[in-house]
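Before relying on records like the one below, remember that each one covers exactly one chain. Contacts with other chains, cofactors or solvent are not represented anywhere in the record.
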Amino acid sequence: TDRVHFLGFMRNPYPVIRQSYGLVSCSTTEGFGNVLVEALVCGVPVISSDIDSGPREILSPSSPDHTFRTQDPEYAEYGVLMPAQSNGDVPEVKDKWVAVLADVLTNTDKLTPYRDIGPDSYDVYSLSQLKSKWDIIINDCSK
């Protein structure tokens, strides 16, 4: 009760996010992971299921294969990628999640490097970067 607070709707949640120890996303399906990027922008370390549509691209952008899905905890470039729980909730997957969460809660320095580099990961989503990519697509389509 002293660690989890349900605050309801907030117009600007970023000051609260910034104070968080970390963000845990254990989704089994997801669209683009806005919440992952928002946490990174605030310097909040992310631990996420390695599922389709975003977590690997966001947390491990230099990964040579964005279709790869980890079966073991992976301390990636901008956060920790975890095996996704399937519909069967495989016990060994749960055990891996419990072990990593227990580790980062007892070893408070474990996520510190992610606090320092997380905001750097945002540059790829900046307006100037996105605009230049859209310009390329539009120019290619108009040929």
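Helices lie at 14-18, 34-41, 55-59, 91-106, 112-117, 127-141.
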